[in-house]
Structures are given as structure tokens and as C-alpha cells.
């Protein structure tokens, strides 16, 4: 029986390899060669999920009422816990019934939201370098990503004044991300106020990705976009339990804010997924109600790691700033290298896996990203290996 050629859809053919899948392959190839790699490539917390969350999941998973289809918008009790957390953390009031939507991780919501609002040819404003799902989700919806370059000159924040007026008028959505991946830069409330004004003037829906808001240093808590007056009129904020509570594999997050925008996202979700397993939502309530001492302890560990890696890299002569938040370090590549060639050099000569900056978008060329998702001892060893390898 003869087969026939299997053709991928144009949208698939146009996709670059997913950055972190490509990094994983490089890592696996190096391991297969017998290299003892230090993986600073993917932002996946290495610390365990706090024990009370795990215990609550065990109990909830044994309850038969949690074994059926969940509601599409999520348990009201989970959404109430989200609203309570937002009130405590940011002073933001949310209606759990209409201003909170449960997600199967924030990535799912970010990838789906363009399908609700973007028609073929519509423009979506995307930070670059940035999380690859912003432009990919846009492309899947038939939209056109317009890259907002994040450069050292503009403090690694989108320059709203540099967006051409005709582009702004065509734009349906704007993705923002603070604390930022990959640069770790934090936007302040004044910047968010300018975003609200820009969005209102151009009738653009703002989708703010705040997944890293609880990984911060030196006691400087990042703000929520929704803390700014008028923000709820123009957009939503995505959040996740992944980074805050070391729950990346659990797949639970939420979106909050403008009820019409959330309703549009819900229409997409109700046709494409069947909601988040209720037992995980029950465990998520426990997470959101944990004492601050739990997250304080996690931040302390990341800060110790940051304060091991960054000074070590500086001593090697690399240009790097102390990140104020998130668990990423954004490093300028030395002269004579491009992002990809320096990444390859560190892997081949030092056994250290990093991420090339241009993998997050063309403006990331000239940088690499390292994560803090390993022990401070391994980070110190990574610095020593790079010193020995030279560059």
C-alpha cells in the first residue's frame, strides 16, 4: 500500500523551531556525548512544589466529585482565591464571577487570546525580544506581529512613541511582560499609565503577562498593570502558579481584568479545551492562601543564586546587570561573537547550556540569557568553567 505526501499547513511551515524545544535537543545531544552539562537554558524552577500544595492535591484527587469535567471558567472557589490574592498583593478588587478566568497555565491563555480578537491581517504589538508565544499565537490567528524592540537605549521597555500612528490605529492587541522575560526589566506604574493612555487613544486591548511578579529581589515588589487607573477598561493580566509556587508541570494559571476580554477568551477555550482538572484547582487555592514566608523563602534562594552568578560573570569581564526580578540574567556577548556562536562556544567548551538572545527576536541579537534554576554551587561551577574555557 503506497502512501501519499503529508503536507503541513502554511501556518506550521512558517513557524521557526520552538526555541525551548530546540534548546532541549541541544542539551540531550550533549548528554548523549557524555558531557556533564550545567543547564542554564530553560526557566523551569528546580525547587519542589511546597508540601502543603502537594498534600492538598492528594486529598482532592481522591475525591470522586473532582473526576468529572470541570467548568470552563474554573471553580468559583479558585477564582475567589485569585481575587483574594490580588486584593492582598496588589490592592486590586476583582469580581470572581466575571473578572477572573482559570487557565491551563498562562501559556495556554496567551496563545488563545488572539483567536478571540484578531482577524486575518490585524496587527498585534509584540515586545521583542520576548516570549515566543506572543508572535506565534498572533500568527495562528492570521494576525501580523509588529515587533516593539526592547533595547538598552530605551531601558528594555517598548517605546510607545516609536510606534507609527498608522500601525497603532490598525493594532487590535498589545502584549506586555513585566517582569520581563528575557531581560528581567520591571515596568513601573508611570509606564503602565502611559500604556493605558496609549491603549485608550488607539482602542487597543492590552494583554499583560505578569508570570514573574513574585520573583523579585531586594524587597522591591513589581506592580500589577491593574493597579493603574483605567487598566481594567483596556485589558487583562495573565498570571500563573508555575513560577511563584514551583508548579510548572501542574498547568494552572489565570487571567484577570476586563470582563469582555475574558469572555472572548472563554469562548475560545470552551470550544478548544475542557478546563483545568478540579483537584489541581483545589490545590491552587491552598497555594494562593499560603503565608508570605513560603514565597519569601523561595525569593531568598533565588537572590543568593543571583548574587553568586552575576558578580562571577562580571569578574570574567562580561557586561551584565543585576536583575531586579525574574530568574533570568541578560548578558551582552563579548566582542567577536554573535548570540548563537557564543551559546555554542559555552556549550562545547564549558558544558554550559544558555539561550541565544536572538531566539527571542532579532533585537535580542548580541545577548544571551542564563537562568537561576540550579544551585548556587552549580552556578559558581558554571562561572569557573567559563573562566577556564575563555572567550
Summarize the model shown.
The chain is an alpha/beta fold and 391 residues long. 42% of the residues lie in helices and 15% in strands.
Q: Rough shape?
A: globular
Helix content: 40-55%
Which architecture name of the largest domain does CATH use? Answer: 3-Layer(aba) Sandwich
Give the SSE string.
HHEHHEHEHEHEHEHEEHHHEEHEEEH
Largest sheet properties: 7 strands, mixed
Q: What is the CATH topology descriptor of the largest domain?
A: Aspartate Aminotransferase, domain 2
Q: CATH homologous superfamily of the largest domain?
A: Type I PLP-dependent aspartate aminotransferase-like (Major domain)
**What portion of the residues fall into strands of 2 or more residues?**
5-15%
- In CATH's first tier, which class of the largest domain applies? Alpha Beta
Mean pLDDT: 95
DSSP helix count?
Answer: 14
Identify the quaternary structure here. Answer: single chain
Strand order of the largest sheet: 2-8-7-6-5-3-4
- Total domain units: 2
Q: Using the CA coordinates, give the radius of gyration.
A: 21 Å
